[in-house]
Amino acid sequence: QVQLVESGGGLVQAGGSLRLSCVASGANVSTAWMTWGRQAPGKGLEWVSKFGPSGFSTIYKDSVKGRFTMSRDSAKNAVYLQMNRLLPEETAVYYCIRGASLGGPRGQGTQVTVSS
Question: Does the pLDDT value for residue 57 go beyond 90?
Answer without folding.
Answer: no
